[in-house]
Amino acid sequence: MNFQKLMKQVDKQNMIKLLKQFPTQFKEAYEFGKKWPIPQSFKKKKFDHVCIQGMGGSGIGGEIIKNLMHKNSKILVKVNQSYSIPTTVTKNTLFFAVSYSGNTEETISGFKQAKKKKASIIAITSGGKLAKKSKYVLKVSGGFPPRTQLAFSFVPMMAIMQRLNLTKKNKELENTYRFLNKYNKELEKQGKNLALQIKNKTPIIYGQYLFKSVLIRFHTQLAENSKAFSHWNIFPELTHNELVGYKNSGKLVFVFFRDAKESVKIKKRINVAKNIIKKHSKVIEIKVKGKTLMEKLFYASLLGDYCSYYLALLYKVNPSPVKNIEILKKKLKH
Question: DSSP letter at 124?
């Protein structure tokens, strides 16, 4: 397969360059979050929880933080993807409003409500209404597809939470940059191979609960980059319902993200489900590398990004435009 030729024909906005730069972007985002001047009033607060408001490519960073904080956070972390905010948001809430464009309807709505509740708000945006309305803004560079700016929708929030002692202070962010830099070329190669294996099939993406954020990420990247439909679910939940509804089909391809440190119970459930499915559908297992959960999540995430990009090339569709979303936005204005 001549991917270089396909790149010239299809990738009009040079998205591959942004994907390859992700480890560097991760490092830049860390320096940004480490140096951003946290308001003194925030440092004096005793926050009872964190609420992260964000949609699509701007919101996935919150999902990753939620997975990471499942065991490491000193306080509860919530992700909100609605026009209304949880009733738990109060003056004791650290509220991140994340919108790359700064004009996302749901995020603007959540921001206004959080402001009325007198929550401590930090906006992460490249501009727009959110930048104008917010007192404390972590402003990022604009002009890119939001889904390519994952590092800036994740790393600064994580760094700020560490600085506010809301989670453990460690060198995970620094180490993850080095880890991604080391495996970047390998992940691109794996992404190509996975794209070739799932071409012309509907991917069903499975993994354990701690991988939920990257399963969502892969699903949405396949939609936006490859213009392909997929489905995702998590263990152990899917073994209580979805497995029963499985129909024998050669049109489906199951992608299992596996962790060498899966618990005995999770491993057993995954293996039983895999053996049921592989009798009739193709099953691909991805062995996720990394010493820490953060490394594992970004290993899986970047692999999915590369896969969705090369699948777009195989389908001969430009990965950058999101035509249906633009149609939706125009319709919503009328």
Answer: E
Amino acid at 73: S
Residue segments in the chain with a per-residue pLDDT below the cut of 70: 325, 327-332, 334
Catalytic annotation, pick one of 240, 268, 280, 323:
240
Query: Cβ neighbours of residue 102 under 8 Å, at least 6 residues apart?
Result: 123, 125, 126, 127, 128, 129, 130, 131, 132
* Residues 237-277: tens digit of each pLDDT: 999 999 999 887 779 999 999 999 999 999 999 999 999 99
**Runs of H (alpha helix) within 202-247:** 212-224
Residue 7 contacts by C-beta under 8 Å, 6 or more apart in sequence? 16, 313
Question: Is 285 annotated as catalytic?
Answer: no
The beta-strand segments (E) located in 176-223 are: 202-208
pLDDT tens sequence across 286-316: 999 999 999 999 999 999 999 999 999 999 9
Q: Is the whole-model pTM more than 0.90? A: yes
CB atoms within 10 A of CB 221: 28
150 Cβ contact list (under 8 Å, min separation 6):
22, 57, 60, 61, 217, 301
Nearest Cα to 50, choosing from 126, 104, 119? 119
Domains by residue range for the chain, with CATH: 36-169 (3.40.50.10490), 185-314 (3.40.50.10490)
Which residue carries 């490859």 as its tokens?
226
H runs (alpha helix) in 74-149: 105-116, 128-133
Q: What is the pLDDT of residue 168?
A: 84
Q: Which residues contact 278 (CB under 8 A, 6 or more apart)?
A: 254
Q: What local confidence, expressed as pLDDT, does residue 328 receive?
A: 57
Catalytic position from the list 116, 118, 280, 329: 329
Per the CB < 8 A criterion, the answer to whether 38 and 160 are in contact is yes
Does the active-site annotation cover 17? Answer: no
Active-site residue identified among 106, 188, 224, 295:
224
Known catalytic residue at 224: yes
CA atoms of 214 and 207, how far apart (whole Å): 9
